[in-house]
Amino acid sequence: MKIGIWGGMILVLLCLATTPAFAATEMQPGEWEMTMKTEMPGMPFPIPPMKYKMCLTPEKMVPQQQDPKQECKMLENKVVGSTVSWVMECRDKQGVTRSEGSITYQRESMEGTIHTTIDSKQDGAMEMNQKLSGKRLGACGK
After folding, report:
1. Residue pLDDT, tens place only, 87-98
2. The pTM is what?
3. Phi then psi for 36, rounded to 5 degrees?
4. What's the angle, vertex CA 136, arms to CA 33 and CA 49, rounded to 5?
5. What are phi and psi for residue 47, nearest 5 degrees?
6. Per-residue pLDDT at 100
7. What are phi and psi of 5, to 5 degrees?
8. Residues 111, 140: contact at Cβ < 8 Å?
């Protein structure tokens, strides 16, 4: 599997929610640290957890860091209480990636899951499951 596919998948998976979710929760704006643990059946080695720091604001809950070569569309986005759920699909020359996820936010923490199906022309069909957790670190820019 090429690094390009992995990089694109990770960036797409960061596109987790939109502004209405922020308004419906008690989540506090500021700098957040998120940890993503990935399980992928059939991988010859475990995928190490990845950590990201990002500034979340009412206007920009999660950075939209998708690969410019991919065309991504949010097919569903629902907020119920403090839980955001979504379905996103991304297409590029290598294939289609579909992610379904759910995150529950609290004032200064979050937890969620993402199930991703990848239909790659090069590598065929693949699936992965991810667990997300996060905490607020403080104000943005510090």
Report:
1. 989 998 989 999
2. 0.74
3. -115, 120
4. 25
5. -90, 125
6. 93
7. -65, -45
8. no
